[in-house]
Design goal:
CATH topology of the largest domain: D-Maltodextrin-Binding Protein, domain 2
CATH architecture of the largest domain: 3-Layer(aba) Sandwich
Order of helices and strands: HEHEHEHEEHEHEEEHEEEHEHH
Radius of gyration: 22 Å
CATH superfamily of the largest domain: Periplasmic binding protein-like II
Structural class: alpha/beta
CATH class of the largest domain: Alpha Beta
Shape: globular
Number of domains: 2
Number of strands: 13
Largest sheet: 9 strands, mixed
Strand content: 15-25%
């Protein structure tokens, strides 16, 4: 009987080992989120024994999750900051960046807004509070409702660096976003605010532009995958997945963070509305 009991226990342990579900945890950017979720769906279809979860808490929180060891992959719509690298080093974490796609930040307004084109300087003046009415830009006599991403967002960081930061007489000047701006927690929330507000303007990742909003031409160039890939669109950036060290070859982390290099990964990125790195 003792031998039989031990055999049963061994069999149960073996079965548990074989059927135990492996996990991949991703956290971070709401811009990279759609790519990560699409990759996760594809990866789980190819690897039924792996459970991939994707949270969208913002780029800053994604970096913190990687540093604290609570995620395997951090999604960031910007590069890691110096203070994040410092915190990572202190925690024994070595962040490695994987560029998974290119993105343009589109300026979007309500479809009823007749304004079609802005310069980067005009966008900056709107967000700085120097232009406050659409009539100053050839639009209706309505106060502009300025919508921004929250300051923890990588999209906010990119917008601030590419639009709000400029040079005056050779010196770098950082304009403050006006105090009356509304801050929202995701690309989807920014788009939704514009959908419901005829006088609003917001900025979103290229993959969040649809027929419910109108994206503006910037410096004479439309925000499209082609203009981003060619470098002609002024407000563009790479999208990242960060890992702790270079992933071990053959691991699920390595396989996941190289999906974007495969034909299927490139197809997924393109279908969502972003730019595959192979086209950049």
């Amino acid at each position: 009987m003792k031998w039989f009991t031990m055999a049963v226990c061994a069999a149960l342990m073996a079965a548990t080992t074989v059927t135990a579900e492996e996990k991949l945890v991703l956290d971070g950017s709401t811009t990279v989120g759609p790519i990560a979720k699409a990759f996760a769906e594809y990866y789980m279809s190819m690897n039924p024994d792996v459970n991939v979860t994707v949270s969208e808490s913002g780029s800053g929180n994604g970096a913190k999750s990687l540093i604290h060891g609570t995620c395997d992959i951090a999604n960031l719509s910007r590069f890691m900051k110096d203070n994040e690298f410092t915190a990572a080093a202190e925690a024994g974490v070595m962040p490695v960046a994987h560029v998974v796609a290119m993105d343009g930040i589109a300026m979007v307004v309500h479809p009823s807004n007749p304004v079609k084109e802005l310069t980067v300087a005009q966008v900056r003046d709107i967000y700085a509070g120097k232009i406050t009415n659409w009539s100053d830009l050839g639009g209706p006599d309505r106060d502009i409702v300025v919508v921004s991403r929250d300051t923890n967002s990588g999209t906010y960081e990119t917008f601030y660096n590419l639009v709000m930061t400029h040079k005056v007489d050779g010196e770098k000047v950082k304009e403050k976003i006006q105090s009356g701006a509304e801050y929202v927690g995701s690309n989807g929330a920014a788009r939704q605010r514009v959908q419901s507000t005829p006088a609003a303007i917001a900025y979103v990742g290229l993959g969040f532009v649809d027929r419910t909003v109108k994206d503006l031409t910037i410096e004479g160039v439309d925000a499209t995958p082609e203009s981003v890939a060619s470098g002609r669109y002024a407000i563009a950036r790479p999208l990242f997945m960060f890992t702790n060290g270079y992933p071990k070859l053959g691991s699920h982390v390595h396989a996941f963070t190289t999906i974007h290099l495969s034909p299927k990964g490139q197809e997924i990125v393109e279908e969502i509305g972003f730019v595959p790195v192979t086209k950049y």
